[in-house]
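[Q] Does anyone have a clean structure-token version of this?
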Amino acid sequence: MDGKTALTLLDLLADGTPEAPALLAPDRDPMTFRELRERVLALAERLASFGLGREDRIAIVMENGQEMVLSLLAAAVCGTAVPLNPRYRAEEFAFYYGDGNVQGMIAAPGTVPDAHAAAAPGTVVIHAATDPSGILRLEPSGTARPPRALALPGPDDVAILLHTSGTTKRPKRVPIRQRNLAASAANVVRACALTQEDRSLCVMPLFHIHGIVASMLAPLAAGGSAVCPPAFDALRFFGWVDAFRPTWYSAVPAIHQTLLSRAGRHADVIRGNPFRFIRSCSAALPPTVIGRMEEVFGAPVTEAYGMTETTHQMTSNPLPPGVRKPGAVGYGFGVQVAIMDEAGALLTSNAQGEVVVRGLNVVDGYENNLEANEAAFVRGWLRTGDQGTMDPDGYLSITGRLSERINRGGEKISPLEIDHVLLRHPAVAEALAFAVPHRTLGEDVHAAVVLRSPATEQALRRHCSDFLVDFKVPRRIHILEALPYGGTGKLRRNAMAGTLKLAG
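[A] Here you go.
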């Protein structure tokens, strides 16, 4: 892909060799670049025939798969795609439909009844089904609008509308333009040195920017291919690896940890189908886990850093022979990254402050949210809300989420530091430090862990005392069967005190 010329999704799809495989999926025939582009255009024209156009938002409520990819791309070419988690409840669908001004909704017939029930009167409801020949068909359910001619998108048109996670505040709308997607895909291609020989295995949901850009668009932008099975299934992952021979996959730490726990049963598959590399993003991957993964899979693990507002990637560790620094998330590819203080001044190397970024992949701003834009966008820089440091070589280390810092009697504590210490204990598989209300200190430190072998709370606290000053040692360590992950695979740190019903 030539990142200087690909400014829309259609440009991106035109970069692959026409007869080369582009999209693969279980129980589906491989789709070439020519077929993919033709089908996306045909489906976009079909949506226009239902009266939908550039100014319309079209929700897609589907599990991963070839049908989801085609529907998402077609909606982004005809209007604006609004991919939503199919596991939402009716109230959640109603919120996202209303907040995003959704005018159309695509779903497979007979699925997600809550998504259908939440659709407001006047919404163009579209059924997506694959016919016996393997062709995806879109049919309106009920009355459609008068047909329109398809108007192809330009670089400044909004391709996808996503929302921030909204774990502590109302979710903000993030309009991602065609040019943002093209630029971000090009950045991932460069960071991972992707070529037409590479094939990704998409295990991230396509209602999340990580899955959309890294797992799907970046391999296509490189002229390679993407395998898009249904939703992530650890029981089927190694079978997909054996069948499709992907050269890499990208995922959140929760998925990596799950696959690592099962890898011993699939040693033959791993040896017979070696990955060129494995990529991790969307949450911190502890160095101890990286080491175990590289030993088990025999492939380098590169950690990247991104967010919805930057259309996914900001920084990445390079692949060998480039230098990967333990604990760092690499340096910027196609973006400028810096550290800023509270007053808006840029800081020197090794100083701690807020991570800021600017580049072609960064969105222009939140939609209809002047207050949030004034707070987040400063002199061309986007304030990420993450705290970090940058070394003299430009490598970024994230020290915590500003909104997740624990303020224990005036001592500001990064929960990530505690996570990493707990994960160094051989019995700990997963760890999450978090704040709980405290009557005199304001907040105190607790942690939750999932164990791989027996250990007591007292032993874990003693382990923390060996590496942390007293005020950082968790007052309580809760041993759980599982940690609470959101729909995109991120741990819900700020919700932990409420989840465990912990009061001050």
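[Q] Thanks! Anything notable?
[A] The first strand starts at residue 21 and ends at 24.
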